[in-house]
């Protein structure tokens, strides 16, 4: 069995030993669409993260029996065409629940707690020159008693909610599918969530129901003191509208880990806001803890064992 990993760089230093034990493993750090088509000509199994699987890809892989997504989202794979061709598609769910929840809370705590401002203030001389023991001009926001609105109440949403409980927050949620129910917290409409929440955090999949779900009109329904965090999928919140809302001070801040197009281009609106101090960016790393990647590699190996 020949196993081809087309963008192994996304796994970093995670061990692929368990996968390699299943057959002949050939790893490419990155692959363009053209390179991918050349590299899968004799592949039985393909592992990929962002490489697109379309008709041209499948035409170039006559022996292919299994596509393993090294992650959860499969928007890059034409699953209908794979089914027609008899090619199994397997992804990995649940491996990054803890790590994504942690990074979501990192964003929330940094936005509400002004951590980056205080770090700079203490380091750049302003604290010394201020003459008093505190930065009196920039008070931060307590989370206790505030409302956290969760968009998408799956496993990650529930983990985030449990942490909110520890902070003494009130949790409400909106199910984008209408099928995720959690009796511990009130389910509300999107409009109600937007209006009531002090912090909104997105944990929904990207699909036809969620594409552009939160745009300028929706952002204007939020409190001007509210924060929005997206560690779910880029494109659920309209990126240009988020920056517009920040620049017009419709909302207080955003924390973003996912983008419509990755990596960011230098002309991206996020990098040219009037208020860069209100925008916290991370490079799609919520899933990328050492522990999560180890679980991911093991789960990919199990998908190959079950799918072969």
What is the makeup of the main sheet?
Answer: 6 strands, parallel
Q: Give the terminus-to-terminus CA distance.
A: 9 Å
Class of the largest domain, according to the CATH hierarchy? Alpha Beta
Radius of gyration: 22 Å
CATH architecture of the largest domain: 3-Layer(aba) Sandwich
The CATH superfamily of the largest domain bears the name: NAD(P)-binding Rossmann-like Domain
Key structural traits:
alpha/beta, Rossmann fold, 5-stranded parallel sheet, 12 helices, 34% helix, 6-stranded parallel sheet, 308 residues
What does this structure look like?
The chain folds into two domains: 2-93 and 290-307, 3-Layer(aba) Sandwich (Rossmann fold), CATH 3.40.50.720; 97-281, Rossmann fold (3-Layer(aba) Sandwich), CATH 3.40.50. The chain has twelve helices and eleven strands. The longest helix has 18 residues, at 290-307. Helix 1 links the parallel strand 1 and strand 2 (24-27). It is elongated, with a radius of gyration of 22 Å. Helix 5 crosses helix 8. The protein has helices at residues 17-20, 33-39, 55-59, 79-85, 97-113, 115-123, 126-130, 155-166, 190-196, 216-219, 239-247, 290-307, and strands spanning 2-5, 24-27, 45-48, 66-69, 88-90, 147-151, 170-174, 199-202, 227-230, 253-256, 279-281. With 308 residues, the chain is an alpha/beta fold. Strands 7-6-8-9-10-11 form a six-stranded parallel sheet, sandwiched between helices. A five-stranded parallel sheet has the order 2-1-3-4-5, with helices on both faces.
């Amino acid at each position: 069995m020949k196993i081809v990993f087309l963008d192994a760089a996304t796994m970093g230093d995670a061990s692929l030993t368990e996968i390699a034990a299943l057959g002949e493993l050939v790893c490419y750090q990155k692959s363009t669409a053209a390179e991918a088509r050349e590299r899968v000509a004799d592949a039985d199994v393909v592992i990929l993260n962002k490489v697109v699987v379309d008709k041209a890809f499948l035409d170039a892989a006559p022996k292919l029996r299994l596509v393993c997504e090294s992650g959860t989202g499969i928007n890059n794979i034409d699953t209908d065409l794979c089914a027609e061709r008899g090619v199994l598609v397997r992804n990995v769910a649940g491996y990054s629940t803890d790590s994504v929840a942690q990074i979501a809370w990192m964003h929330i705590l940094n936005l509400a707690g002004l951590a980056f401002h205080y770090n700079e203030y203490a380091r750049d001389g302003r604290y010394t020159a201020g003459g008093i023991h505190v930065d009196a001009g920039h008070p931060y926001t307590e989370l206790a008693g505030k409302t956290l609105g969760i968009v998408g109440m799956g496993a990650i949403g529930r983990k985030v909610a449990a942490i909110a409980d520890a902070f003494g927050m009130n949790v409400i949620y909106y199910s984008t599918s209408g099928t995720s129910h959690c009796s511990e917290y009130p389910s509300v409409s999107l409009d109600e969530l937007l209006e009531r929440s002090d912090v909104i955090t997105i944990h929904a999949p990207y699909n036809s129901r969620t594409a552009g779900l939160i745009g300028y009109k929706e952002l204007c329904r939020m409190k001007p003191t509210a924060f929005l965090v997206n560690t779910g999928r880029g494109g659920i919140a309209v990126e240009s509208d988020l920056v517009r809302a920040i620049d017009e001070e419709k909302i207080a801040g955003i924390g973003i880990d996912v983008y419509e197009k990755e990596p960011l281009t230098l002309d991206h609106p996020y990098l040219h806001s009037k208020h860069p101090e209100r925008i916290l960016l991370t490079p799609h790393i919520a899933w990328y803890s050492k522990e999560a990647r180890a679980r991911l590699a093991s789960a990919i190996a199990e998908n190959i064992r079950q799918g072969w």
